[in-house]
Amino acid sequence: MNITFKWLTLELFQGNSMENTVVQFGAGNIGRSLVGFIFSELGFNIIFIDKNRELVDLLNRAGEYRIEYREEENGSYHVKNVSAIYTDDFEKVAEAVASAVVVSTAVGVNNLPDIAPLIYSGIKMRKDVLNILICENLKNSADFLRSELDKSGKIDYGIVGLIETSIAKMVPDVPTDVREKNPLVSWAERYSTVYINRAEIRGEFVKSPYLIPVDNFEAYYLRKLYISNMSHTLSSVIGYLNGYRYIADSLFNKSIFHFVERAVHESESALKRKYPFLFETDEGKNYSKDFLKRLMNRMLMDTVYRGGRDIQRKLSSNERLVGPATLYYNLFNRIPENLVRGIAAAFYFDAPGPDGSPFENDIKLKTRIKEDGIESVMSDITRITPDSKLGSAILKEYSRGRSNFLFD
Question: Could you tell me what percent of the chain has a pLDDT over 70?
């Protein structure tokens, strides 16, 4: 069935209409394996918006793609009713946004400013409620997207909801040899729970067992950041420094596992003190243990490169390593020894990627440390001063060299 909107023609599948369409900005790992899956389960059409023209063409030709579950009980899921639009097709993108039930983003924080004008143009073509899921790994992502949208003009946020999400699903990069055979296949774990900020929902919102509205959203986001993201990155850093390629393999080293486990305990202790309600349910009580178990899934083949790359961003003051360390210290007036050691180790991270070279920003960090010294770089990135107790503890661990982070 063809439906034409002025200059836009969308191929829709028999029995569906634009009344149940989600527009997903970003056809990468999270966009395809998580957002695509959730809305496919709801029977939605899925329109991907992406700057990769080859990927857009592939999605349009296939009209579907496969998610492979990399777990002991493996299997796959076919996402159907799929189409795609190239980002530069401005008018087509705007019309899709104007007609969608839900819009979602998973483009990476640095790309949000590029898509904000596209979203704005679609919003201005409609008069009804629109909820936008922001699937970006950024605290206060709604404020950031709002500031970018406002650069284009005025929006009535009484009917436009900017819904922050807390996502702890692990989606590894598909190996090159697999991707060459099937460029649309996505690897993932089955876990697909997404906590969303109830306060930002406007009007009626889609009902899904995977989309869980919560009050006190910041608490859920910080639990994900300080436990899931922290342990994922810390395992990657220590795993790399001990010669491992895959995160799961590093955690089968008992010494590394117990080190990461102790760091998780420090983060959890601080979060329990600040947000005790997070850990009162069965899900909350088992959150840390369950995530560590998922990290040890060897079939996922999640690399230490993916988990640690862009380490400078992950070392910033409000991020996964420094954030829980600072919270712990401020609450208990004690040094979180394992988190501190992990922060120090992170300054040595420069794991090579698939092309044999480290992530560009990781190379730049090494250069900065060499030219400006660790004290200056640490202070600038983490906002922890060298003469503070936390700063002194980090510098002491760092000064012992890379061998300080080797485990038997």
Answer: 95
Nearest to 407 by CA among 229, 236, 243, 231: 243
Q: What is the mean pLDDT of residues 179-185?
A: 94
From the list 332, 348, 331, 320, the residue with the least C-alpha distance to 263 is 320
Residue 68 pairs with which residues in a beta bridge?
76, 187
> Residue 5: pLDDT above 70?
no
pTM of the model: 0.91
Q: What is the pLDDT of residue 72?
A: 86
**13: CB partners within 8 A, 6+ apart:** 1, 45, 63, 80, 81
Give the three-state DSSP class for 396: helix
Q: What is the pLDDT of residue 13?
A: 34
Mind listing the pLDDT tens digit for each residue in 238-290? 999 999 999 999 999 999 999 999 999 999 999 999 999 999 999 999 999 99
Segments forming the whole domain that contains residue 281:
218-405
The closest alpha carbon to 345, from 259, 226, 228, 245, belongs to 259
Same structural domain, 164 and 244: no
| Domain finish residue from 163, 184, 215 | 215
Residue appearing with tokens 């600040």: 274
Using CA atoms, how far apart are residues 398 and 173, in angstroms rounded to an integer? 30
Pair 64, 95 in one domain: yes
Can you point out the beta strands (E) in 113-270?
Answer: 130-134, 160-167, 186-188, 194-197, 211-214
| Cβ within 8 Å of residue 105, ≥6 positions away | 24, 25, 26, 112, 115, 119, 132, 133, 134, 135, 136, 145
pLDDT for 404 equals 96
184 and 298 together in one domain: no
Write down which residue in 215, 247, 279 finishes a domain. 215
253 within 8 A of 242, measured Cβ to Cβ? yes
Token couple for 231: 């342990």
Q: What is the CA radius of gyration of the chain?
A: 22
Q: What is the rounded distance in angstroms from the CA atom of residue 345 to the CA atom of residue 135?
A: 29
**What average pLDDT does this structure show over 290-312?**
97
Q: Are residues 151 and 238 in the same domain?
A: no
